[in-house]
Amino acid sequence: MMPTGNRALAAVAIAAAAGAIGAWALWPEPEPASLLRPGDPQVVAAGAKVYAAQCASCHGADLQGEPDWQTRDPDGLLPAPPHDETGHTWHHPDDLLFRITKHGVAEAANLEGYETRMPAYGGILSDGEIISVLSYIKAQWPAAIRQRHDRMNEQMKSQ
């Protein structure tokens, strides 16, 4: 049998350890500077399949987008933009690209009333599939554009 003082000390130690473990488990894991993985061949290959099935019909098989993508059509909507280096996709950080794809442009960019033909893919694709398709897109950019995009992500994380 343990003396009373030792039992109290053991109880305090156990409570402290449990609290530390609980805090560690609930503490948010730091996100990597880049959510996307354009250097991972398996992720990029999976993303190519998702892109072909879900994105290419509007954004083009070669990421070229629709013609005159910066000019509103008769319905007042903008055509699908290119996702290659000629478009603006690389002007946005990873987390915004992820949110746009998952939740839609209006919600992700807080643009109430913004209309677009692009659906929110949150109910269609898993988070992993969204990351893979965005990784595939980024893997197609020239090295200089990818490096610029990486620097932007680093800067966004430090803010």
CATH homologous superfamily of the largest domain?
Cytochrome c-like domain
* CATH class label of the largest domain: Mainly Alpha
Please report which band the strand proportion falls in: under 5%, 5-15%, 15-25%, 25-35%, 35-45% or over 45%: under 5%
Termini distance?
56 Å
How helix-rich are the residues, as a percent range? Answer: 40-55%
CATH topology label of the largest domain: Cytochrome Bc1 Complex, Chain D, domain 2
The unreliable regions are 20-33
Mean pLDDT, all residues = 85
What structural category characterises the helix and strand content?
Answer: mainly alpha
Run of helices and strands: HHHHHHH
Rounded radius of gyration (Å): 23 Å
Name the CATH architecture of the largest domain: Orthogonal Bundle
Total beta strands:
0
Shape: globular
**Total domains, how many?**
2
Q: What is the helix tally?
A: 7
Largest sheet: none
Structural write-up:
With 159 residues, the protein is mostly helical. It is 52% helix and 0% strand. It contains seven helices and no strands. α2 crosses α6 and α4 packs across α6. The longest helix has 23 residues, at 4-26. The model is unreliable at 20-33 (pLDDT under 50). InterPro entries: Cyt_c-like_dom, Cyt_c-like_dom_sf, Cyt_C_IC, Cytochrome_c-type_DH. This is Cytochrome c family protein.
Provide a quick synopsis of the model:
The chain folds into two domains: 1-30; 35-157, Cytochrome Bc1 Complex, Chain D, domain 2. It is 52% helix and 0% strand.
Helix-strand blueprint:
Elements: H1 4-26, H2 41-54, H3 56-59, H4 94-103, H5 105-108, H6 127-139, H7 143-157
Helix pairs in contact: 2-6, 4-6
